């Protein structure tokens, strides 16, 4: 009996402890301090793309710069309206208009555009910083951190802290007259298009 007990104690002394990573519920951002980075990388990678050389007869490819601001403490749905607002504007006009928008997201968009403008002149060989316009501007959803809020009678409520990302692409040159291309055709072109559609009509199973 004594030998058996000594054998059990000897086996227990040789065991290595196994630590299980138990994720507990936490109300702060320290829980994600050592997690893998999940920031968007595809959009900013367009700055490193190398294009083939162009022929002399081709239209010169305008220079552009992509920039992003990540983990903004703001709703991506609210930021979307401001991002759409500056599309198709020149950089100077966009900064001027955003200065009069009394919203928190307008400051984020304005700061991102100014950073992209400085980046274009510094790293992308843009000659004049005012010769830029907003070619792309949109927002994306970021991480959502869940917390708790104490209610009455010992109950708890869920709180969601939402973050978002903002993406902008500035292009060299003058902006288009109609960014969304919603201007209707002239009356004569509308009539010609209608006549062409009518002449293309065909009765099914006919010769």
Please characterize this protein's 3D structure.
The chain is of the alpha+beta class. The protein has a domain at 41-48 and 61-175: Ribosomal Protein L22, Chain A, CATH 3.90.470.10. Helix content is 30%, strand content 22%. It is built from five helices and three strands. The protein has helices at 2-13, 76-85, 91-98, 104-123, 187-199; strands spanning 64-72, 132-150, 156-172. Strands 1-3-2 form a three-stranded antiparallel sheet. A hairpin with a 5-residue loop joins strand 2 (132-150) and strand 3 (156-172). Helix 3 runs antiparallel to helix 4 (104-123). The longest helix is centred in the middle third of the chain and has 20 residues, at 104-123. It is extended, with a radius of gyration of 29 Å. The termini are far apart. Residues 18-22 have low confidence and may be disordered. It comes from Leptidea sinapis. InterPro entries: Ribosomal_uL22, Ribosomal_uL22_bac/org-type, Ribosomal_uL22_sf.
């Amino acid at each position: 009996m004594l030998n058996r007990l000594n054998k059990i104690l000897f086996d227990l002394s040789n065991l290595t402890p196994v630590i299980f990573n138990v994720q507990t519920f936490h109300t702060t951002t320290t829980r994600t301090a050592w997690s893998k980075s999940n920031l968007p990388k595809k959009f900013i990678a367009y700055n490193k793309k190398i294009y083939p050389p162009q022929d002399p007869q081709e239209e010169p490819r305008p220079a552009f710069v992509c920039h992003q601001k990540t983990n903004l403490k703001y709703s991506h749905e609210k930021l979307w309206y401001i991002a759409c607002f500056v599309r198709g504007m020149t950089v100077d006009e966009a900064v001027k208009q955003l200065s009069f928008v009394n919203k928190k997201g307008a400051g984020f968009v304005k700061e991102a555009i100014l950073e992209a403008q400085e980046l274009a002149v510094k790293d992308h060989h843009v000659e004049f910083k005012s010769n830029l316009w907003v070619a792309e501007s949109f927002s994306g959803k970021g991480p959502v951190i869940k917390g708790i809020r104490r209610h009455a009678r010992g109950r708890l409520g869920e709180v969601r802290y939402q973050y978002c990302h903002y993406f902008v692409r500035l292009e060299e040159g003058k902006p288009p007259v109609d960014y969304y291309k919603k201007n209707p055709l002239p009356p004569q072109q509308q009539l010609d298009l209608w006549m062409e559609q009518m002449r293309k009509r065909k009765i099914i199973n006919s010769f």
